[in-house]
Amino acid sequence: MAVTAEGDFLAGFLADDPDQPVVMMNLLRFAEGGRAYYQQYSKAFAETVAPRYGVEVVYAGDGGDPLIAQAGQQWDAVLLVRYPSRHAFSQMVADPAYRRITHLRTKALSEAVLQPTRPWGHRRT
Fold it and tell me: Whose CA, among 1, 27, 88, 103, lies 20 to 30 Å from 110?
């Protein structure tokens, strides 16, 4: 299962309004014992990487029982994270400080969805 952004994802992501703010929806499924690793990752991220790139966690919460979903679509946690731009996100994931903490995120998760969003009414340039 996917837990990190790799390959062609970043190229396509950057091609879509690279200088506009973006809110990423994170759906997380923790590996056994993974919540503790994710808490370590979150703390390190908030203290070192987020301020450098202007990243803001808009919402973070535990997933509940879904009202409408297929089997297996329940998530352990949901986060909405605002980045000042797609370009800033791309720079962040290449930053050595970020790369030093990603092992915690990888170890924490068994599956994840990281989906960029766009405000309704926003047209691509």
Answer: 88
In whole angstroms, what is the distance from residue 121 CA to residue 27 CA?
A: 24
Mean pLDDT of the chain: 88
pLDDT of amino acid 7: 56
Model pTM score: 0.85
Q: Where are the domains of the chain?
A: 8-64+74-117
Give the CATH architecture of domain 8-64+74-117.
Answer: 2-Layer Sandwich (3.30)
Instruction: Return the closest-CA partner of residue 5 out of 95, 90, 98, 74.
Output: 90
Amino acid at residue number 14: L
The beta-strand segments (E) located in the chain are 22-30, 56-62, 77-83, 109-117
Distance CA 41, CA 108 (A): 9
Helix axes 8-15, 86-94, angle to 10 degrees: 150
| Contact yes or no for 63/75 (Cβ under 8 A) | yes
